[in-house]
Amino acid sequence: MWSRIFSRVQPLKSRPVIVLNFKTYREATGEGALSLARIAERVRQDQGVNIMVSVQHTDIYRVASSVNIPVLAQHIDARDPGSWTGHVTAEAVKSSGAVGSLVNHSERRLTLADIGACIAKLKSLGLLSILCTDTPETSAAGAALTPDMLAVEPPELIGTGIPVSKAKPEVVTETVKLVRRINSDLILLCGAGISTADDVARAIELGTEGVLLASAYVKAKDPYALLTSMAKAANDALRR
Ligand code: G3P
Predict the structure, then answer these.
(1) Contact between residue 119 and residue 92 where contact means Cβ atoms under 8 Å apart
(2) Of all atoms in ligand 1, which is nearest to the CA of residue 54?
(3) Active-site residues: which are they?
(4) Which of 41, 81, 113, 122 could form a disulfide with 129 if both were Cys (CB 3.0 to 4.6 A apart)?
(5) How sure is the predictor about 6, in pLDDT bands with cuts at 50, 70 and 90?
(6) Domains in the chain, please, with CATH?
(7) Which of 19, 23, 150, 189 gets mutated to test ligand 1 (max ligand atoms within 8 A of its CB)?
(8) Residue 154 and residue 92: Cα distance in Å, rounded?
(9) How far does the centroid of ligand 1 lie from the alpha carbon of residue 227, in Å?
(10) pTM of the model
(11) What is the b/e burial string over 2-17, where b = at least 16 CB atoms within 10 angstroms of the residue's CB?
(12) Which helix (H) or strand (E) covers residue 159, if one does?
């Protein structure tokens, strides 16, 4: 699956991963989403880092048909196609050009049963699953459901600009330790408050393969310069 999903970027394991969550920010909606995705595509080409964008459902087709980097949904409902009003199926996001989805983001929490069903559904369609968790313990539980990637994010730091990799490094290191005991293949990220190149470098030094971030990029005065600095720091940290 990796070759199909990441054929357009570097082999996943050898390069760090930066996932940009556009959430429902005004700056990252519609043409704004496309503009920020194009900048991310340029940085990926320049720096050779795996960069993915997670956009609102209404922007998946617009973005996925315009840029050559992986586009993710922010959520899916683990339902089969049929009589489900207002739900968004994995089949629907795939047909729009998404290569996967976030699952259980703290702003879109699911039950454990729904998490398992979403991951299984995404897998059945050859789609990437990025499970979002909040503690080392929920990360360990989630790892057993075999998502492709897992991003641990303490909700209280989200949107604060206070990076988890510096404010709560123990959450990251404990998550790495517990998850690695259960699933050695899973790509591990951390997020919440990641705002600078140094925050990204620190996240990788703590044992992750990358980061999940939102507001620092979406609200940056110069998103290209910020993301370039983060990509360079990620590459340097992964080589060390
Ligand atoms: O999905 C990542 C997001 O929850 C982190 O938000 O704004 O702290 O980067 P932010």
Answers:
(1) no
(2) 1
(3) 105, 153
(4) 122
(5) low
(6) 17-220 (3.20.20.70)
(7) 23
(8) 30
(9) 15
(10) 0.95
(11) eeebbeebbebeebbb
(12) none
